[in-house]
Design a protein that fits this description.
Layout: H1 3-9, H2 18-40, H3 43-50, H4 54-61, H5 64-89, H6 94-110, H7 124-148, H8 155-177, H9 184-203
Amino acid sequence: MNRVAETQTVPARRRLPRGEREERMLDAGERMFGEHGFRAASMDDIARASGITKALLYQYFGSKEGLYEACVERARARLFQRLEREAESAKPGPARLNAVVTAYFTYLDEQRGSWWLLYGDASMSAVDEMRRQNADVIATLIADDIRTAGGAADGQDIEMLGHLIVGSGEQVARWWLEHPELPRERAIERFVTATQAAIAGVLGA
């Protein structure tokens, strides 16, 4: 067999689409950061685990910190996509708030011990941006409930409530995760009650 014919029999290596490459790198990053922590995990390890070169890791994410924060952001996005799905399937008003809070605490309970939980070791600037995105999601849900009920509210009040609920939700979640003896249902009930009072106080309901 001549060299040309022999070359033609070798299957061409499939070039992964950009999105698939990125997901593979993030999956490998999650595994390595989960097993070794941020400081001990190396880009060499993540490149080997993903089957993608270290040069491409740096091209996509800029640094190990950038990759780590992208992993945290993806985990955060999954959580808030879940919350939005729960909100869409619930009736507006108290039932929607209860559904969202229940989904939030249930997700945290399922992920106890996860490396990324509540932002992990992400930088302050990245965490602030994620918190802003989270607050925007919550504010949108509150605004939708108000419109559905035929009411109106000041945009800044709604925006403030989004940040208030996200900030208090993080702190209460951290406290609750340190107290596994407290039943999840009890934490949900109390947080829903406190959040309803905050919304009513700010909006004058």
